[in-house]
Amino acid sequence: MLHEADRRIYFPTVGFSESLNLSVATALVCQRLIDWFPALRGDLTDEAKDALRKEWFPQLTSSPDTWIAAPSTIGVLPDVRRDPSRTETGQNPWVSKKIRRRELDLEQVQSRQKSSKASSPPQR
C-alpha cells in the first residue's frame, strides 16, 4: 500500500496516540488546516446550509420520518461539548452510574454534601 501512495506523512505523537487510525489522523490534519486557514471553511449561504441539513439530518437518525415531518426542527445543532454555561446552570456533563457511585462513596464528596446540606435553608 505504501508503494502506491503519492506521499508519506509522519505525525509525531506521544503515548497511546501512536495508534491513531487513518480517519483520526485525517481529521487532525483537516482541523489544523482550518485553524491555519480559516477561509477554507467556506461561505455557504443560510439557504444552502439549510438544504444540506435537510438532506443529511434524516440520515443521522433511526426514524427519518420524524425529521421530514417537522422541518422546523431542522436547524443548527448546539455544540454542548464546549458550552461552559451547562455547568453554570447546573447541567453537569454525563457521568456513568458506576463512576458516579464510586465518587459518591469518597469521603471528600460525602463531607462536601453534608456541609452543603447544613448551610442550605430548610425546605418546606
UniProtKB/TrEMBL annotation:
<protein>
    <recommendedName>
        <fullName>tRNA/rRNA methyltransferase SpoU type domain-containing protein</fullName>
    </recommendedName>
</protein>
<dbReference type="InterPro" id="IPR029028">
    <property type="entry name" value="Alpha/beta_knot_MTases"/>
</dbReference>
<feature type="compositionally biased region" description="Polar residues">
    <location>
        <begin position="108"/>
        <end position="124"/>
    </location>
</feature>
<dbReference type="InterPro" id="IPR029026">
    <property type="entry name" value="tRNA_m1G_MTases_N"/>
</dbReference>
<feature type="region of interest" description="Disordered">
    <location>
        <begin position="105"/>
        <end position="124"/>
    </location>
</feature>
